[in-house]
Amino acid sequence: MAQTTPAAKHPKGLYVLFATEMWERFNFYGMRAILVLFMTKALLFDHAFASNLYGSYLSLVYLSPLIGGFMADKYWGNNRSIITGGIVMAIGELVLFACGSLYQSSPQISSVLFFSGLGLMITGNGFFKPNISSLVGQLYPHGDKRKDAAYTIFYMGINVGGAFGPFLCGLFGDTGNPADFRWAFLVGGIGMVISVIVQKLFQAKYVVDTEGKQLGTVPEKSPKSLLSPIVVVLGMTVLALIFIGLFYLDAKYNYLFYLLSACFIGIPLIVFSDKKLTKIEKEKVAVIFLICFFVIFFWGAFEQAGASLTFFASEQTQRDLGFFTVPASWFQSLNSTFVVLFAPFFAWFWLKLGKREPKSPFKMALGLFLLALGYLWIAFGVKDVQSGIKVSMIWLVGMYALHTAGELCLSPIGLSLVNQLSPLKYSSLLMAVWFTANAFGNKLAGVLSSLYPDGGKTTSFLGYHMSNLYDFFMLFVFMAGAASIILFLISSKLKKLMEQ
Ligand code: GLN
Fold it and tell me: Quick one: fold of 11-253?
């Protein structure tokens, strides 16, 4: 991550996008912070089912941008897509608010509302997220040195929202009374409305290129008929219905796991069977797939945050301070808070290392290592603790600190790495592969969280049996630890393949 200097002043548009994204992430992470709590304490789903749903939801959240990005590039432009996506997400929160208000009196309507609300969040996010990220880069001319710093500042916006969302939604919604969860959805929805208003008010004036020309407008060749409000509303309704269906079907059949596995076998076969690609190009593509493979394991362990680790915060962590009980959802603010605190240190540290700054594969291996260390820390905290006894908050806090350090090593380099290694012909497909790897990681997170051993139940994964929390956390130590060691061992080979 580059550092800003006083000379590198940023366009005002960056701060508009910062605010828009901050409020959207406030909404997204605020809702996510109470999601599994709402499922288990209000809707009374068991841990395994709630975990699987969590994985399905997040997985589709990473797949929907493939459609939202495509639609914006071809037909709607970024601005229209961001506003439309934002409104759809705000409606999603309102639907969830209704679900949280009706789950006792009309359980059947409430379960339809639950799937619909999350389906709307998936659809809206698909239009919002890729388009706002792309606008950040468009503010600067090609090759502008300020771009890296701009994304670092933007990442701060993401995490300020990610820290305050769980905090405020938890404060209002995670009170110990399940009927209050709905307030968290409402607070999230208000955040989303603020985001849309900010973008709508300031995009035309400030989100402009260096010549003052507005960015994110409708592409020239886009047919006018596709822009009419009726078509937009109809289109979004159809898409939302599709995503609600896809989400519901995954809750029933878990097909996403198999579909995503098939993608990771099928897409490499397509690319590698292309005779026009040179050996060097193929080797670079192979690096992308290998990196994706490791990234899947990273997110699979990291994104336990909103699932098993929230069960752990809620049920196994001593949160009573005497005068106040810390809501379990607040622990989900920690990751973003640590990002804001640690990112300047990382920027300084990489700069200080100068030429000795490690290359991407090595940093990714380090990220996986820190993730494993975080789980080792918490495994140590629960070792030999009798079931039913709650442990200190220090174990979760320390673990999130280590996980965040891991995220800062691994997460910011992914996109640029894919950009840099893709042959032009496959650049969009390989970018889609990158998103798909994130989707797969999140699906895996749900699948693994469903193995959370509670109530004396023993679960197993690939022959490894887990009958207590120590065994469960050690699964992630082994998984991330093994991935890290392998990546450390092959990192110099990967570096050579990348640089040829
Ligand atoms: N926390 C970041 C965000 O919400 C990155 C998440 C990710 O890449 N999986 O944008």
Answer: Growth Hormone; Chain: A; (1.20.1250)
